[in-house]
Amino acid sequence: MQRDLSAHLSLDVTSPVTLAFELAVSTQLAADEDLAVTLDGRRLEPTEVLDLHGTRVHVVRADPGRLVLDYSASIRGRAPGLTALDVDTLRYLRPSRYCESDTLGPTAHAEFAGLHGFDLLAAVSSWVGSRLSYVPGSSQPTDGAVRTLLDRQGVCRDYAHLVIALLRALDVPARLAAVYAPGLTPMDFHAVAEACLEGRWYVVDATTLAPRSTLVRIATGRDASDTAFLNVHHGYARLDELEVTAVADVLPDDDVRELVELG
Description:
The protein is of the alpha+beta class. It has six helices and 15 strands. α2 packs across α5 and α4 crosses α5. The N and C termini lie close together (11 Å).
């Protein structure tokens, strides 16, 4: 399988600012790639900082002006899945900013009592997918899993947060992965949950909007607070343009009865 990816961002920087981008593919993947950042046409050199699970953060310090970032990558084949470490299984059992598993514990136990392993992952994914409506622009940046369940609508990150919170409430380690998603319509960055079974991480995507086997890992963490494609610090910048592309030479059917690792 070959997957070709790109991202184009344009920002209006109105005061000196520090920008942290998470949009390059994970170090888990071998990719031919290019990253270019310019400010009013002048090339800037970002600093790459490594985070957990191969997440790459590109930090840019910029003065006022028009900042443009262009990223492209080509990936051939699939990488092996990530093995769960002991510290991971502990970290991803805890409640987090957007995944209030402590609050949703009674709901999780009432709905999924007696289910384990694959049957539990399938049941949670189906339950979330059938109870939420995918409505672009329906959620706020501060909405977590509880708000999503009450509103019964959201976008990919909201679906993932609810899946993660329910699984953690049932003592299944779960986390969020930001990905490129060939086949996604409309095209954008995508967010999915990953759940740990027997030491391996498996994709759970209650939106079913793209084949799981084509997804490309960008960033991994507790929830969207760890995986946002852009964070703005110490100044102000407005995002004016965002274009994402992700294509694969093959778009396979996604059999929901199969366990799929992100690779």
